[in-house]
Specification:
Elements (H helix, E strand, L loop, with lengths): L16 H14 L5 E2 L11 H12 L12 H15 L8 E4 L3 H11 L5 E6 L3 H9 L3 E6 L10 H7 L4 E7 L11 H11 L5 E5 L24 E6 L12 E4 L2 H14 L5 H12 L3 H22 L14 E2 L10 H12 L1 E2 L1 E2 L11 E4 L4 H24 L1
Parallel strand pairs: 1-10, 3-4, 3-5, 5-6, 6-7
Antiparallel strand pairs: 2-8, 7-8, 9-12, 11-12
Helix pairs in contact: 2-9, 3-9, 4-5, 4-8, 6-7, 10-12, 11-12
The chain binds pyridoxal-5'-phosphate (PLP).
């Protein structure tokens, strides 16, 4: 019998496969193999200099201590101002909770709002942590299937059929990881029409809200009456290439925000002070850096989609936002996990199986194009060779 005994709930906790695939890829690299990284969901750009400078200044100025659990007032003011402008709603700093990365907002929301057996409707495929945390905390995760024939935009009509008297939370994520689908304003209005006035909260994960290629960003919180029912999850990780800084935030009603702050007190105490000061510089500074990064992502997206579409057996929609391609590879192998493993082991291309994002991700791969066009081109060439050999072998056996 093992010495350690774990709580039963640990058996219900999932994971983010991206980190596991990254570890496997690194192990292959340690053996001298070349691996192209298309698995991890983070911008490869350096954090812009003026943001790094602001952090260095903050360290020198003594921002090296605890801050209030909700975050420094001046940082919450900068966030409130930014969210208010971008969503067109009034936001008071008391409605803002600053967290170490945006992820804790998922945990805190489910922990604060759901009792055992309460239902949370979440996108499948979708960010794996939604389902993982819901199960962990004894809530009942209810998948809302995203379909390729709707460009992976969650279907409000399907939502209507999923809502029950036990539904407490609905999770939206637009632009969406992993499918790159973007909900239209009409989609959001239809969703709001179902949710408005019911005792249901929407957790709107808008972390990719600034990474869009032409589509207009829309938040459900902007629709009449919906700010009172919505928790916005956002942060600086993706927009400003700051994944390692761990800075994100939630915006909710004052009442809900106060509960989330209680959870901060009981877990992290606060977010690092100098990263909060860096966030102010990012939000109030020149936004040209974001525009340049998005323009470069678009160039890479175009190279990625063109290359994927040229591969026999691969079908791929044009990503409308974020930095992921989600090609349908069913014609090559209906088992996406097997195909992803083959690509890593035989071709040195690290990608994620669609099933890393839920059962309904089967038949797809997720490729992050947060890598150079040269690396993407080389990856596509390796994939072409690997797929050709793979299908030939499958035919022979
Ligand atoms: C949809 C989505 N939400 C939230 C996060 C978490 O962001 P952070 O790194 O700020 O915790 C990610 C990161 O991959 C994501 O893809």
């Amino acid at each position: 019998m093992p010495l350690e005994r774990f709580a039963d709930r640990m058996a219900r906790l999932g994971t983010e496969t991206a980190f596991e695939v990254l570890a496997r890829a690194r192990a292959l690299e340690a053996l001298g193999r070349s691996v192209i990284h298309l698995e991890i969901g983070e911008p490869d750009f350096a954090t812009p200099d003026h943001i790094k400078e602001a952090a260095a200044r903050a360290l020198r100025d003594g921002y090296t201590h605890y801050t209030p659990a909700a975050g420094l007032l001046e940082a919450r003011e900068a966030i409130a101002e930014d969210v208010s402008q971008s969503r067109g709603i009034p936001v008071h700093p008391d409605q803002v909770l600053i967290t170490p990365g945006a992820k804790p907002v998922m945990f805190f929301t489910i922990m604060a709002l759901l009792n055992p057996g309460d239902e949370v409707i979440y996108p499948d495929p979708g960010f794996p942590i939604y389902e993982s945390v819901a199960r962990f905390l004894d809530a009942r995760p209810v998948p809302w299937v995203l379909r390729e024939d709707r460009e992976f935009r969650a279907d409000p009509e399907e939502l209507r059929a999923l809502v029950t008297p036990r539904t407490r939370l609905i999770i939206l994520n637009s632009p969406h990881n992993p499918t790159a689908g973007v909900l239209s304003r009409a989609d959001l209005e239809a969703i709001a029409g179902i949710v408005r006035g019911r005792p249901i909260t929407v957790l709107s994960d808008e972390i990719y809200g600034r990474i869009l290629y032409g589509a207009q960003f829309a938040s459900i919180a902007s629709l009449p009456g919906m700010a009172e029912q919505t928790i916005i999850l956002d942060g600086l990780s993706k927009t400003y290439a700051m994944t390692g800084w761990r800075i994100g935030y939630g915006v909710a009603t004052r009442e809900v925000a106060a509960r989330l702050v209680q959870l901060m007190v009981n877990s992290n105490s606060c977010t690092a002070a100098f990263t909060q000061m860096a966030a102010i510089a990012a939000l109030r500074g020149d936004q040209g850096c974001v525009e340049r990064m998005v323009a470069e992502f678009r160039r890479r997206r175009d190279a990625m989609v063109k290359g994927l579409r040229a591969l026999p057996g691969v079908r791929c929609l044009v990503p409308a936002g974020a930095f992921y391609a989600f090609p349908n590879i069913r014609a090559i192998d209906p088992d996406s996990g097997r195909l992803a493993a083959h690509l890593l082991n035989e071709a040195g291309v690290a990608v994620l199986a669609g099933t890393a994002f839920g059962a309904h991700g089967e038949g797809y791969l997720r490729l992050s194009y947060a890598n150079s066009v040269d690396a993407i081109t080389e990856a596509l060439s390796r994939m072409q060779t690997a797929f050709a050999r793979y299908t030939a072998n499958a035919r022979a056996t």
